[in-house]
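Quick one: structure for this chain?
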Amino acid sequence: MTQVRSMASGGFVAEREFGFHLAERFQGIDLSGVDTAGLALVVHIGKARSLNMYKLGRVLIGAATGGVKTAVVVPVEGEAVALPIFDLWMQVDASQELKDQLRLESRVRAAA
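Got it. Here's what it folds into:
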């Protein structure tokens, strides 16, 4: 582990980990579709309801800019999942867009 960055208001903890340590740290995780040669970003998600997608997206962009290619998502309940960081960022961006659209729709309905 090289660095831990906690987001108290974001609902997650992100840390950088060397890719070759992932198999030891997360037993039984499928690493076949990801690059384990460099650094990986390990994201521990607390309560899914309190997760701030905007802040998570910013952390993912910063990690990708720094050369991180792999993300491991560790929810409180369930198993860890390894995927390319770009795929995780696309999922986070899509969730943020959906949340914004739902918020806008509720405002339109309230105004009508």
